[in-house]
Design brief:
Layout (H helix, E strand, L loop, with lengths): L6 H17 L4 E4 L4 H13 L9 E4 L6 H13 L4 E4 L2 H5 L8 H20 L3 E3 L16 E4 L27 E4 L7 H10 L11 E8 L2 E4 L15 E6 L10 E4 L5 H10 L15 H7 L3
Length: 297
């Protein structure tokens, strides 16, 4: 396996962005999904401010349909590294029983987008660090590293500022906030190279093992909670050796058939794959850009 020759430079760049952002903020926060990218970002924050604790909490927006393994990893990671962890869910949406099986875009808007904006307003956060990378999806490729958000956290791709020679503009008006993406220039392989190099613990969902799945429109959906599963009469649950390349709400995140049960095997499989990393996000079938304009991550 060939590691990215620029991994050290990418690491230095990310750490510098974290330090700049904190210096320019009043109340920063890290968005933490407990996926591989946000785990790497949180680890970089630990390094950026060592030996002090990172001067910002982790914020997890709980859609209420998260993988149970992911929640366990989230809590363990925050506790081990002494992060303050804020967990926020849209209780109004929960009370309405919104779910990804039946409510599609409405569920995403209420339980993801609206919940995130509510959490940011509640915490009065002005610089919000996220783990998004430009190579993940075409809409994310439009983002600047330092991305200005308008009133109500809306995003206008035409109003983004130039970033010549890696110079970042952190200025913001009274109604504006900043979304900062220190991993913008990283690739999926870079993420795994960093995890391997630092022996970084990650969610076990990224490693292959036997899991109960059902097939929906060609996608392998892991049944994380049988009691909450919306079963169909033609469902034929079976055990398969699968893992995930990307993580979201379990009813709309497809697993891949794989025998990669170690970081080394995951890296080798990732390098040889011709498939998109986010192909397993069933929820990406709509317009991600439209969601982002409304304030989505």
């Amino acid at each position: 396996m060939k590691w990215s020759p620029g991994l050290a430079a990418l690491t230095s760049e990310a750490i510098q962005i974290l330090r700049e952002g904190v210096a320019e903020s009043r109340n920063p926060v890290i968005l933490f999904s407990a996926g591989k990218d946000s785990t790497v970002l949180a680890h970089l924050a630990l390094r950026a401010f060592y030996p002090s604790r990172p001067p910002m909490p982790l914020l997890h927006v709980d859609s209420t349909w998260e993988f149970s393994e992911l929640l366990a990893f989230r809590d363990a990671f925050a506790s081990e590294h002494r992060f303050d962890l804020i967990v926020y869910a849209n209780e109004e949406g929960r009370s309405r029983g919104l779910n990804p099986f039946e409510h599609g875009d409405l569920y995403t808007t209420v339980m993801r987008t609206d919940a995130l904006k509510q959490a940011l307003d509640r915490g009065s956060f002005d610089v919000i660090f996220g783990g998004a990378r430009r190579d993940e999806e075409k809409t994310r490729a439009k983002e600047r590293i330092v991305s200005v958000r308008g009133e109500h956290h809306t995003w206008d791709p035409r109003a983004q500022r130039p970033e010549l020679w890696m110079t970042h503009n952190w200025r913001r008006g009274p109604e504006q906030t900043i979304r900062a993406y220190p991993l913008s220039n990283w690739t999926e392989v870079d993420i795994w190279a960093y995890i391997k190099a630092h022996q970084l613990p990650i969610s076990s969902l990224y490693l292959a093992r036997a899991r109960k799945v059902v097939e929906r429109s060609g996608a392998l959906i892991v049944v994380d909670d049988p009691l909450r599963m919306r079963w169909r009469t033609d469902d034929q649950p079976r055990e398969m050796i699968v893992r995930f390349r990307t993580l979201g709400c379990w009813p709309v995140t497809a697993a891949i058939s794989s025998n990669a049960d170690s970081i080394e095997c995951v890296v080798a499989e990732t390098v040889s794959s011709a498939m998109s990393e986010r192909q397993g996000r069933v929820s990406d079938e709509g317009s991600l850009e439209a969601q982002k304009r409304q304030g989505y991550f």
